[in-house]
């Protein structure tokens, strides 16, 4: 009877968790296309990402406070982790990604960022001596071939080197997120880690803009997309509420139901979503060679993940957005 009850519970979790995870991936995946519209309208990437993080941080402020439930000492105890998470996993990843989508297709930029799991495998090998499996090495090679095709360098086509470097910078930030999220000894509830990290990231970006380190320029002009022109606040609210705050909530719910390993596979749907929204909002589509390369990148990342030991599956993913994912261990913590 116990086994039957467990099987029923697993099936129920899959029925509810799968659509939630896919919804989370698609809400996260729309951020690049909405941001590109703002950038084309005269916003700097720094301004676009700052607004995104501020809106999401304010939306999650009350849930974060409730999640703490008087345990304010956790903030002081984990100040270093929260600061690193906010500045690296949140700020650097999103800022570099927005810089990349300002000069290249959103789907291609996200695909480059999604090579982060491979970077984590290499980091753990060099730093901790955790040698990757043969399957992981094969996956990394497949992804590398895919990147070469996706960037279309073999055809002699001119590529934006700056955009590629920004995208790889986002990949490094995403890899930092995986490493930081692997910390299971913080005791931070998931909403606190994300909410506090977003707040720290927003403050850091604001200070950087105020002192002139980060160019900040925005306007209230209408923003043009493929389907038409909308007021400036439409993409701002879409990025902050839908592509960040709502996506995070959906990601938590789906990861609790599916587990971190399955959720991280479904997170790859964000790449498909980015390509879809890039076409719907901006009319961007990769050519045939780039499409083949994109498929190889996705296949390579999947093979790398399949090559990970089951015991190492300690990082949960909220539909693939590195800025908002949470440690799997924290998901098991009673609320």
Describe the structure.
The structure is a single chain. By secondary structure, this protein is mostly helical. The protein is built from 16 helices and two strands. The chain has a two-stranded antiparallel sheet. β1 and β2 form a beta hairpin. The chain is globular. The two termini are 28 Å apart. 50% of the residues are buried.
Major sheet: arrangement of strands? 1-2
**Distance between the amino and carboxyl termini:** 28 Å
Instruction: Bin the strand percentage.
Output: under 5%
Biggest β-sheet description: 2 strands, antiparallel
Mean pLDDT: 77
**Unreliable sequence segments:** 1-6, 311-335
| Element-by-element helix/strand order | HHHHHHHHHHHEEHHHHH
* Outline type: globular
What structural category do the secondary elements indicate?
A: mainly alpha
Alpha-carbon Rg, integer: 19 Å
């Amino acid at each position: 009877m116990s086994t039957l009850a467990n099987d029923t519970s697993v099936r129920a979790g899959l029925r509810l968790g799968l659509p939630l995870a896919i919804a989370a991936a698609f809400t996260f995946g729309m951020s690049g296309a909405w941001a590109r519209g703002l950038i084309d309208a005269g916003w700097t990437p720094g301004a676009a990402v700052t607004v995104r993080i501020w809106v999401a941080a304010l939306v999650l402020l009350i849930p974060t406070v409730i999640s703490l439930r008087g345990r304010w000492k956790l903030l002081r105890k984990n100040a270093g982790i929260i600061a690193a998470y906010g500045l690296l996993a949140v700020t650097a990843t999103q800022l570099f990604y927005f810089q990349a989508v300002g000069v290249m297709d959103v789907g291609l930029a996200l695909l480059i960022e999604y090579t982060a799991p491979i970077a984590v495998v290499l980091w753990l090998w060099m730093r901790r001596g955790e040698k990757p499996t043969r399957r992981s090495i094969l996956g990394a090679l497949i992804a590398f071939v895919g990147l070469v095709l996706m960037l279309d360098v073999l055809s002699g086509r001119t590529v934006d080197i700056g955009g590629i470097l920004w995208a790889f910078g986002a990949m490094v930030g995403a890899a930092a997120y995986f490493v930081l999220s692997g910390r299971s000894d913080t005791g931070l509830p998931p909403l606190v880690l994300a909410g506090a990290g977003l707040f720290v990231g927003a403050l850091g970006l604001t200070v950087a803009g105020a002192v002139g380190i980060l160019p900040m320029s925005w306007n209230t002009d209408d923003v043009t997309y493929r389907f038409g022109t909308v007021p400036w606040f439409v993409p701002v609210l879409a990025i902050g509420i839908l592509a960040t705050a709502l996506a995070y909530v959906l990601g938590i719910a789906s990861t609790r139901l599916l587990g971190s390993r399955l959720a991280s596979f479904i997170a790859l749907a964000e790449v498909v979503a980015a390509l879809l929204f890039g076409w719907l909002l901006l009319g961007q589509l990769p050519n045939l060679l780039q499409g083949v390369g994109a498929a190889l990148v996705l296949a390579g990342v999947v093979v790398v993940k399949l090559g990970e030991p089951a015991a190492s599956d300690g990082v949960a993913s909220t539909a693939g957005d590195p800025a908002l994912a949470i440690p799997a261990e924290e998901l098991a913590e009673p609320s």
